[in-house]
């Protein structure tokens, strides 16, 4: 049986931390569906299609990675795609409580669904998309935070 996992997130924009999770998941699973979803508590900077395009370019060398977008509940999307595993990145203890709540809520909504956590490397533990947005929009150097092939595009958008 083919093992597929969904990696959900806002990816506003994708960072080297996300890419590390995608690469690790792509080694463990036959297929990784990176799903750009809506977090209703956030107002995005990049449009869904911009975020998907950035993710597509950052993962172009990974044959078993698919980039997709979905507007509803993650639990529903997993059911629709016939997938029973989600992967999430854990950066620090502070992520844990929120991720734990989401994992339980998703399982209540879709009892088939298991959440698997991949821990970030210590050198990327501090990273988040909002940090990239803030530093980039103020003219700071984000080259250590985002994939090199996306750097100029992300900077251009953030400085607009
Ligand atoms: N490296 C770098 N940054 C990381 C990271 C990693 N390994 N893992 C997480 N982050 C960052 C994210 O970029 C994000 O940064 P930001 O707050 O600056 O945007 C932050 O850590 C939180 O990440 P995450 O917990 O994955 O939140 P998210 O907003 O990216 O994604 C969704 C949350 C979209 C998956 C969630 O809201 C969802 O499932 N929405 C669909 C609707 C739904 O089903 N809701 C009910 C959920 S129970």
What does this structure look like?
- The mean pLDDT is 96.
- This protein has a single domain, classed as 3-Layer(aba) Sandwich (Rossmann fold).
- The protein has six helices and five strands; from the N terminus they run E-H-E-H-E-H-E-H-E-H-H.
- The protein is α/β, with parallel strands linked by helices and 160 residues long.
- Coenzyme A binds at residues 8-10, 12, 15, 17-18, 21, 37-39, 42, 73-74, 89, 91, 102, 105-106, 120, 124, 127-130.
| Hetero groups | coenzyme A
CATH homologous superfamily identity? HUPs
Which stretches of 5+ consecutive residues score pLDDT under 50? none
What is the radius of gyration? 15 Å
Tally of domains = 1
The CATH topology corresponds to Rossmann fold
β-strand percent reads 15-25%
CATH class membership: Alpha Beta
- CATH architecture descriptor text: 3-Layer(aba) Sandwich
Number of DSSP helices? 6
Question: Strand count, sense and closure of the main sheet?
Answer: 3 strands, parallel
Ends apart, CA distance between termini: 47 Å
Shape: globular
Please state the average pLDDT score: 96
Strand order of the largest sheet: 1-2-3
Roughly how much helix do the residues carry, as a percent range? 40-55%
Sheet/helix structural class: alpha/beta
Order of helices and strands: EHEHEHEHEHH
DSSP strand tally: 5
């Amino acid at each position: 049986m083919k093992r597929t996992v969904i990696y959900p997130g806002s990816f506003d924009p994708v960072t080297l931390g996300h890419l590390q999770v995608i690469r690790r998941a792509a080694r463990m699973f036959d297929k990784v569906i990176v799903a750009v979803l809506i977090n209703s508590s956030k107002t995005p900077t990049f449009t869904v299609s911009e975020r998907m395009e950035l993710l597509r370019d950052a993962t172009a060398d990974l044959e078993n990675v698919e980039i997709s977008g979905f507007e509803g509940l993650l639990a529903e999307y997993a059911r629709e795609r016939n997938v029973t595993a989600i992967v999430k990145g854990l950066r620090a203890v502070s992520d844990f409580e929120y991720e734990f709540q989401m994992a339980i809520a998703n399982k209540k909504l879709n009892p088939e669904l298991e959440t698997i956590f991949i821990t970030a490397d210590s050198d990327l533990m501090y990273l988040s998309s909002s940090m990239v947005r803030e530093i980039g929009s103020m003219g700071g150097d984000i080259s250590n935070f985002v994939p090199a092939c996306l750097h100029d595009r992300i900077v251009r958008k953030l400085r607009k």
